[in-house]
Design brief:
Elements: H1 6-9, H2 11-17, H3 22-29, H4 33-40, H5 48-60, H6 67-70
Helix pairs in contact: 3-4
Length: 74
């Protein structure tokens, strides 16, 4: 079974649960606003480095793997 990064498919959901704007998230992970917008519209996928940076942001915020489904249960 391939491990899928939960943040890749659910960037918008996780970002809004964090109370974070697209612009703020982009700044935190070192990408442009338009890049985050493309990810959320599923036009492109984050690179491996971007996924790692996104995971670091989630870790700092206390969001663990599976956050998209788990965050709603908190």
């Amino acid at each position: 079974m391939v491990k899928r990064e939960p943040c890749v498919a659910n960037i918008r959901e996780i970002r809004t649960r964090l109370g974070c704007s697209q612009e703020t998230l982009a700044q935190q992970i070192g990408v442009s606003l338009s890049t985050v917008q493309r990810w959320e519209k599923q036009r492109t996928q984050p690179s491996r480095l971007a996924r790692q940076a996104l995971q670091r942001v989630l870790n700092r915020a206390g969001v663990r793997e599976g956050a998209a489904s788990d965050a709603g249960r908190m």
